[in-house]
From TrEMBL:
Keyword Lipoprotein: no
Record EC number: 3.4.13.-
Source species of the chain: Polaromonas hydrogenivorans
Annotated transmembrane regions: none
GO MF term list: metallodipeptidase activity
Record protein name field: Membrane dipeptidase
PROSITE patterns, alphabetized: RENAL_DIPEPTIDASE_2
InterPro entries tied to this protein: Metal_Hydrolase, Pept_M19
Lineage, opening ranks: Bacteria, Pseudomonadati, Pseudomonadota, Betaproteobacteria, Burkholderiales
GO biological processes: proteolysis
Keywords: Dipeptidase, Hydrolase, Protease
Superkingdom field: Bacteria
């Protein structure tokens, strides 16, 4: 089972869904699609959710919105791509823990609490460290209670450790790479990787150029980062979240009103022109990963785990609640 832990379509109701078809054709069985970040108002997120859900429902032969591992397996058996949604940041929760279950009912299957910058719930990885707030602890409980995957991508180091200590369920990094290999603020330390593994979770490797340390990222670059996680904590705790951003020319999905990209992606943290210098591994990376993972020392079963079975295991545990 091949599990893409994070992908981005334009946050617009007219977003082209053909990239998801490309993922399916490349062998992906499940993809988590972003529906909003801390900079996006709830009105925009709800518009995107409504449009995405309608698009999926209109093409059941190609896409299935899923809520369980059994539904993923059924979609795969029918040749359809299983889809879930994710939120990147806690601001869309409006300070209300009960919002978690509402988003779950709309298809959100994983969430992290801060997108690069601090908010009343958690710390971003490019901001001042404070740790998980009291409201954040209530939010962790709400995520666990709702049966949603608790994610720590984009989250500050200390805060992520607090989240992993507070969670009663496995915690994931849906798209994050080892800091020991590439010293970027979005990458995660050995301490964070070990803490994630201690929860039973998975660190999913991003295919973003800056976090892999190359301008032209390849399957071998992704495999080397996965191998580092595997060597540190075991192959059962490594996964894939390429974080490909599928832009659509002519479609403006920027948040309405005042919006400063340089705040969310600061130049001081290594972003040139916000995301202007970012490149991604191609979709076809999915076809090359099994061989690449074995070239870096994994056996076939370990490689299959990294490709998706590890995330399938964690989802099978977390999504059973309630």
């Amino acid at each position: 089972m091949n599990w893409e832990a994070h992908a981005c379509l334009p946050l617009h109701p007219d977003a082209d869904f053909s990239p998801l078809g490309r993922l399916r054709d490349a062998g992906v069985h499940y993809v988590s699609v972003n529906v909003g970040m801390d900079m996006n108002p709830v009105s925009q997120i709800l518009s995107v959710l409504a449009a995405y859900r309608a698009r999926i429902a209109a093409h059941p032969d190609r896409f299935r919105l899923v809520a369980s591992v059994a539904e993923i397996e059924q979609a795969a058996a029918n040749g359809a791509l299983a889809v879930g949604f994710d939120l990147e940041g806690a601001l869309p929760l409006l300070g209300q823990p009960d919002m978690v279950a509402l988003y779950r009912d709309l298809g959100v299957r994983q969430i992290h609490f801060a997108y690069n910058r601090n908010n009343p719930v958690a710390d971003g990885c490019h901001d001042v460290e404070r740790g998980l707030t009291p409201l954040g602890r209530r939010m962790v409980e709400a995520v666990n209670r709702a049966g949603v995957l608790m994610d720590c991508s984009h989250t500050g180091r200390r805060c992520s450790l607090d989240i992993m200590a507070a969670s009663s369920q496995p915690v994931i990094f849906s798209h994050a790479n080892p800091l020991a290999l590439i010293p970027h603020g979005r990458n995660v330390s050995d301490e964070q990787i070990r803490a994630c593994a201690a929860t039973g979770g998975v660190v999913c490797i991003s295919g973003v150029s800056a976090f892999l340390g190359t301008s032209t990222p390849t399957a071998m670059d992704v495999a080397r980062h996965a191998a580092y996680v595997a060597e540190l904590v075991g192959a059962q705790h490594a996964g894939i979240g390429l974080d490909i951003g599928f832009g659509q020319p002519g479609l403006d999905d920027n948040p309405p009103g005042h919006y400063d990209p340089a705040y969310w992606w600061p130049a001081a943290a290594g972003y040139q022109g916000a995301l202007g210098s970012i490149t991604y591994t191609p979709v076809e990376t999915w076809r090359l990963l099994p061989e690449a993972l074995q070239k870096v020392g994994m056996n076939a079963a370990e490689a299959a785990g990294v490709m998706g079975n590890n995330m399938l295991r964690v989802a099978g545990q977390v999504w059973q609640r309630p």
